[in-house]
Amino acid sequence: MASITELNALYTLASSIITALIAALATYFGTKYKANIELQKQREVHEVEIRKIQEQAIQEVERYKAEVAGQAELYEKRAQTDFVKNILDRALAGDTSTISNLEKLSKQVHSGKYKNKNHPAKKKR
Hints:
- By secondary structure, this protein is mainly alpha-helical.
- It has helices spanning 4-92, 97-111.
């Protein structure tokens, strides 16, 4: 059988190992807990950054839509101006057929006989 001295030595050794093991486990779980908290903070930061980027993208799309609409409106005004300019150039050059065609069209529109066959609402889908 083991003597008391050997048992005390074994007890001291076992308690040292158990104390070290408990300290290591406490350190491990503490570090894991801190890492999980840091990871959660990073996720929140990244989610905020993603939301900011999404909002910026939405604002840019809206800005581009407004810009394109403005350009389309400007293009339409230029096209109307060019149309009137061409009519006036022809009239000044002595081409009276354009003016007579416009007069005929005006009479048809005012009398209600004019039907625009190229109107988008009349297109078959």
